[in-house]
Amino acid sequence: MSIFTPEVSIIIKEARPEDAVKLIEYTKIVGAQTDNLSFGKEGAGDTPEVEEFIKRIGSDSKSVMYFAWKNDDIVGCANISSMKRRMSHRANFAISVAKSEWGSGIGSALLEKCISFAKDNEIEIINLDTRSDNFRAISLYKKFGFVKIGRMPAFSKINGEYIDADLMYLDLREKSNNRRKIEAFERLEAIRRENKKEIDFNKEREEAMNKKHKIQP
Amino acid sequence: MSIFTPEVSIIIKEARPEDAVKLIEYTKIVGAQTDNLSFGKEGAGDTPEVEEFIKRIGSDSKSVMYFAWKNDDIVGCANISSMKRRMSHRANFAISVAKSEWGSGIGSALLEKCISFAKDNEIEIINLDTRSDNFRAISLYKKFGFVKIGRMPAFSKINGEYIDADLMYLDLREKSNNRRKIEAFERLEAIRRENKKEIDFNKEREEAMNKKHKIQP
């Protein structure tokens, strides 16, 4: 896949273990540019670690990592990491783009590649987390259909400062519009039943406590 | 730590690699008893894998695994797993108790041990996930101060059925009551600012689009 501009083209390719050194260079650059990532200017590890990481992703049929290349440099990176056992229908998504390329469409192109990979590999739910104040990223995710689950307080800690994160998900399960409505209804019903059961459960517990302490209602 | 009953005492001890076989036996039992866990009756892996897992936890100063022993059998298990880099102030918590011991206080005892370990090891936030319909567990977590972050749809898939999970967190950062109020206020302010910025961001984007497509507002 390539995005052509008059001057230079961006090529998106799957990661190879021999790209480890280039990836580390890249993570040091993007890590220094923003505080949006899970690492800072120190980058994302040393060569053997990163090589091992790329190999592990490559050997897992439900995981993938893509790099956006501009000439000989990585300028963007995204990956899908599958989960295990009863969560193997889900995968985590992570992305970064060099600041110099923001607004160029590389983020969208990488995300599109990852969603397409997920669809082809029976991944049904994609999860991600993003700084709650990173509107640029949140706007991109919403454009692709991601929905917010909640806001996790103190998700990361950067130089002593606590940063909240939004947790989001994308539902890739194919369904008709009616199926969606039925499921939305069933979810609401489940929440209603759950609230009722919780009330019953708390009432029961309270009654047991009262009985234990011989309190008459 | 031990919980005495007239007949038999429960002993809580840190996991050792040589407990792997006992742990697998236990996970097969609890995996078959409920659909609340990340594994079923097949248990949580083979001996080398589980041994490796216990060793990894033991060698990490910010992670721990406790077993509740009844005579020679494990009847409960809980662990704290630390996170890396900018998330190293956080840890994940997981727990299971054999059905025969439900209501005996083993869950509370294991959770208390884990929280105490976390406090002693500079963990500031404990995160966990639980089936949204597991009121017994949610009630236990609330008792210890856990707060719900959100509900994750289709968190697990068991025999083709999708199960939602509640994500929760416990804030261990020491603070006065006033500090808590200030932070709650600051969080609300941040959300207000965030919403405003998002509105501004969307407005800006819309204006740019209109300009691009020569639409006059």
UniProtKB/TrEMBL annotation, chains A, B:
Signal peptide: none annotated. Keywords: Transferase. It holds the Pfam family Acetyltransf_1. GO terms for molecular function: acyltransferase activity, transferring groups other than amino-acyl groups. CDD domains: NAT_SF (cd04301). The keyword Nucleus does not apply. SUPFAM superfamilies: Acyl-CoA N-acyltransferases (Nat) (SSF55729). InterPro entries: Acyl_CoA_acyltransferase (IPR016181), GNAT_dom (IPR000182). PANTHER family: GNAT-FAMILY ACETYLTRANSFERASE, SPERMIDINE N(1)-ACETYLTRANSFERASE. This is GNAT family N-acetyltransferase. It comes from Lachnoanaerobaculum umeaense.
